[in-house]
């Protein structure tokens, strides 16, 4: 917990004073679904996210993660995650790391744009960030005490095919997920769907914080699809969540999303929020550092 | 387990260093004379249908002002504050851009030049891309900087430069 607190403070402090070259981001509002836009090359986006969730028959939880998202090229974005959670009345634990990569195989914009997603996760079974829902993930999994769950270490590879497009200002995206525990469990499947639109399509001729074009609203839906041995909706959980993002001219981005479980296997309520800031020219800064130039 | 974690960190580090190293190599190479006719070759690839598209905001009095704000927020980092070329992007005030059809400039904004570093900007709604086109086209032509001038030349890894 102390580590996470320090990390968050370092992030906030560095974002405030350490990196003056800040770009006003145009971020999508999703927490789980991905669209086809990658990070601009050379830019680093530092993001903090929280999820508060209710658990029937057990203690509620608050999970959080930090993402470092870097645009390696215009067709490759790489992200590193640190995650943890607090289960009320139980304890706070660090739950693991993730390394995510997204690749854009096509060089031009199309009606539907595919993105290939590859992620490696090294986490404990106490992971509660719900960054995706896969296989037979159900809320009852969260009833295991942290002291027990954290002993179970999971190394997992996750693949996604992201299909996303824009039509008349609306973004529509569909993500298909396949995940494999390297310890030998069968492949697990999941999905995420999203639709969103800026509240105004034209930009204002005056700089402003609360202009409608700075807000993007939408909805996302996600859930599990079973595994290779039992594919389908049986014993799976699903969520529907309105999403809203405010892209502030100062360079900060604020996201918020209340989520609702759609069946008895789901958490009844999830409240998510996130804060992020994009730093332009981070790659150039690192290059200069290695070359020893001012 | 520790071995796996070590592999992950090694891969992350190697990937990150290789990208920063690639940028470093790109910027530390001796400056070469830019070939203006090829730096802007991507815009020549715009399909006829895209070129023929008129700017629907051409007569909108606010389009240029809104486009300027968008340019400062999205484009100036690479193309320079005055669009005369920057660390990564070429000048947008060259005749190749200024004399191009608005539809061709819009097409480049929409599709990017992904393999050469310019991202796709279709994340901006269509009217905002046209506002950007209005602003860019309002800037007028500025001659390419002469050798030794204070104006920075387009970087070697400029997104519109052929490899």
Describe this structure in words.
The complex is a heterodimer of chains A (294) and B (163). Chain A has helices spanning 2-18, 146-149, 282-291; strands at 44-53, 61-73, 76-87, 91-103, 113-124, 153-167, 170-181, 188-198, 215-227, 238-247, 252-261, 269-279. Residues 12-22 of chain A have low confidence and may be disordered. A twelve-stranded antiparallel β-barrel of chain A has the order 1-2-3-4-5-6-7-8-9-10-11-12. Chain A is mostly beta strands and 294 residues long. Chain A has three helices and twelve strands, in the order αβββββαβββββββα. With 163 residues, chain B is mainly alpha-helical. Chain B folds into two domains: 1-30; 35-163, Orthogonal Bundle (Cytochrome Bc1 Complex, Chain D, domain 2), CATH 1.10.760. Chain B has helices at residues 2-28, 36-39, 48-51, 63-74, 76-79, 95-98, 102-111, 126-138. Mean pLDDT of chain B is 75; it is low at 11-37 and 147-163. Chains A and B meet through β2, β6 and α3 of A and α1, α4 and α8 of B.
Describe the structure using short key phrases.
A: 294 residues; mainly beta; Porin; twelve-stranded antiparallel beta barrel; 3 helices; globular; B: mainly alpha; Cytochrome Bc1 Complex, Chain D, domain 2; 2 domains; disordered C terminus
Q: What is the compact description of this entry?
A:
The complex is a heterodimer of chains A (294) and B (163). Chain A is mainly beta. Chain A has helices at residues 2-18, 146-149, 282-291, and strands at 44-53, 61-73, 76-87, 91-103, 113-124, 153-167, 170-181, 188-198, 215-227, 238-247, 252-261, 269-279.
The total tally of domains of chain B equals 2
What quaternary form is this?
Answer: heterodimer
Overall CATH class of chain A: Mainly Beta
Give the CATH H-level superfamily of chain A: monomeric porin ompg
CATH fold call of chain A = Porin
Q: What's the SSE blueprint?
A:
The complex is a heterodimer of chains A (294) and B (163).
Chain A: H1 2-18, E1 44-53, E2 61-73, E3 76-87, E4 91-103, E5 113-124, H2 146-149, E6 153-167, E7 170-181, E8 188-198, E9 215-227, E10 238-247, E11 252-261, E12 269-279, H3 282-291
Antiparallel strand pairs in A: 1-2, 1-12, 2-3, 3-4, 4-5, 5-6, 6-7, 7-8, 8-9, 9-10, 10-11, 11-12
Chain B: H1 2-28, H2 36-39, H3 48-51, H4 63-74, H5 76-79, H6 95-98, H7 102-111, H8 126-138
């Amino acid at each position: 917990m102390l580590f996470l607190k320090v990390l968050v403070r370092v992030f906030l402090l560095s974002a405030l004073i350490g990196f003056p070259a800040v770009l006003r981001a145009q971020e999508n509002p999703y927490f789980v679904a991905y669209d086809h836009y990658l990070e601009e090359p050379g830019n680093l986006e530092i993001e903090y996210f929280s999820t508060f969730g209710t658990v029937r028959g057990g203690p509620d939880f608050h999970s959080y993660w930090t993402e470092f998202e870097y645009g390696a090229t215009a067709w490759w974005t790489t992200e590193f995650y640190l995650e943890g959670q607090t289960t009320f009345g139980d304890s706070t634990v660090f739950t693991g790391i993730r390394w995510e990569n997204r690749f854009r195989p096509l060089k031009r914009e199309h009606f539907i744009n595919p993105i290939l997603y590859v992620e490696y996760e090294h986490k404990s079974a106490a992971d509660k960030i719900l960054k995706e829902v896969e296989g037979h993930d159900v809320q009852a999994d969260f009833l295991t005490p942290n002291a027990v769950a954290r002993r179970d270490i999971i190394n997992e590879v996750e693949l996604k095919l992201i299909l996303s497009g824009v039509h008349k200002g609306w973004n529509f995206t569909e993500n298909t997920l396949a995940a494999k525990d390297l310890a030998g469990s069968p492949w697990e499947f999941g999905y995420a769907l999203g639709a969103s639109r800026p509240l105004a399509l034209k930009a204002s001729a005056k700089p402003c914080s609360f202009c409608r074009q700075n807000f993007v609203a939408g909805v996302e839906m996600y859930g599990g699809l079973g595994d290779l041995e039992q594919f389908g909706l049986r014993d799976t959980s699903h969520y529907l969540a309105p999403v809203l993002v405010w892209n502030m001219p100062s360079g900060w981005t604020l996201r918020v999303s209340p989520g609702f479980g759609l069946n008895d296997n789901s958490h009844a309520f999830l409240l998510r929020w996130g804060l992020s800031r994009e730093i332009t020219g981070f790659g150039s800064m690192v290059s200069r550092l290695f070359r020893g130039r001012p | 387990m520790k071995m796996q974690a070590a592999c992950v960190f090694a891969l992350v580090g190697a990937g990150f260093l290789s990208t920063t190293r690639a940028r470093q190599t790109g910027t530390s190479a001796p400056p070469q004379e830019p070939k203006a006719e090829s730096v802007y070759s991507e815009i020549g690839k715009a399909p006829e249908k895209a070129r023929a598209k008129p700017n629907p905001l051409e007569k909108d009095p606010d389009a240029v002002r809104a486009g300027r704000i968008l340019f400062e927020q999205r484009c100036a980092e690479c193309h320079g504050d005055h669009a005369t070329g920057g660390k990564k992007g070429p000048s947008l005030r060259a005749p190749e851009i200024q004399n191009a059809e608005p539809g061709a400039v819009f097409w480049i904004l929409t599709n990017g030049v992904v393999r050469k570093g310019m991202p796709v900007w279709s994340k901006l709604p269509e009217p905002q891309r046209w506002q950007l086109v209005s602003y860019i086209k309002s800037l007028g032509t500025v001659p390419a900087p002469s050798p030794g001038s204070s104006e920075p030349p387009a970087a070697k890894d400029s997104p519109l430069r052929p490899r």
